[in-house]
Amino acid sequence: MTIEFADRIGRIPSYPVASGYDLGDGVAMLASNESCLAPLPEVVEAAQRALRGANRYPDPSYGALRRALSDRYGVPPGRIALGNGSCDILLAAGEALLEPGAEVLYGWPAFTVYPHLAAASGARAVEVALDAAERHDLDAIADEITVATRLVLICNPNNPTSTSLGLDAIEPFLNRVPSHVCVILDEAYVEYSLSLGDTYASVELLRRYPNLVLLRTFSKVYGLAGLRVGYALCASEDFRIAVDQVRQPFHCNVAAQAAAVEALRHQDEVERRVVETIAARLALEQGVRELGLWVAASDANFIWVRLPDGSVEGEVVDGLATRGVLVRAGASLGRDRALRVTVGTPAENARFAAALGEVV
């Protein structure tokens, strides 16, 4: 007799993790949308200082980090949720909002964790195709909302397609969503977005839409992917209370909290890194287009490349890997014959473009 597991275990898809973490130095790691820039020395030092007290549990109220985020965005600390990466908050939202008979809506392809929410809860997932430019079709998503809809997920900028929509499109959509439906704007890459204007622009929407949540992370522009700390700016404190209720206590460790607080003190460096990354992205896009390939209009720290008809995606990905370049295959992200490529250092980007030219 074997152990009997819950039915939902068979429904939950495996997260498509990147390969290559054990390949050592000399590999261009362009598969996971991480920043190629290390944390600032002051941020590392803050984490190290926090570890001296690692014999104690973290502050369960996460007071210092919530206050720091409140000071930056003008959102009361009680309406700021923290998590072990933004995925932690996202999965908790699914547990708090969804159940059999409920519905969750999202565009597809989008962040590959989204299907987990319905699978784990027994809710119905409604996936709405992106438009021809690989952007969310907000009108089509709004048309799918029913009395059973509990949660709508909008990844903006979208992962994996790198595209985004401005607030001139987002706000009319929010006007169509009933007030009982929670809308999560997943803004993991918002700092890189030129379409959204600045990181405060969408925060203003929280004042007008009590069902809105902005989901963000320190994993990308702040370079803290290895420490796993994300946050949500919520229009209602009820959301923060609910997601905290369904999770284990102490879900954000002491080193992550200290590093995030320190990182927020260095916005000038963050802005410099954004400018550097966007310049590198534009050069990377140009190099791919010169190979005759279609590239989405990126608004993030990665690009989305369509491979030519007749090409075999697996062979292209393997060919890049043998040349020391790791990228993410589109098939694992919801779209065949495509590549998601993180913006790396200038040397890594040049290496990718040369390898892609050889393989394609």
What does this structure look like?
The structure is a single chain. Strands 2-8-7-6-5-3-4 form a seven-stranded mixed β-sheet, with helices on both faces. A four-stranded antiparallel β-sheet has the order 9-10-13-12, covered by helices on one side. Strands 1-11 form a two-stranded parallel ribbon. The longest helix is centred in the C-terminal third of the chain and has 23 residues, at about 265-290. The protein is an alpha/beta fold and about 350 residues long. It is built from twelve helices and 13 strands. The chain is globular and about 55 Å long. It folds into two domains: about 20-40 and about 265-360, Aspartate Aminotransferase, domain 1, CATH 3.90.1150.10; about 40-265, Aspartate Aminotransferase, domain 2. The N and C termini lie far apart (about 50 Å). It is about 35% helix and about 15% strand. Helix 2 runs antiparallel to helix 9, helix 3 packs parallel to helix 9 and helix 10 (about 265-290) runs parallel beside helix 12.
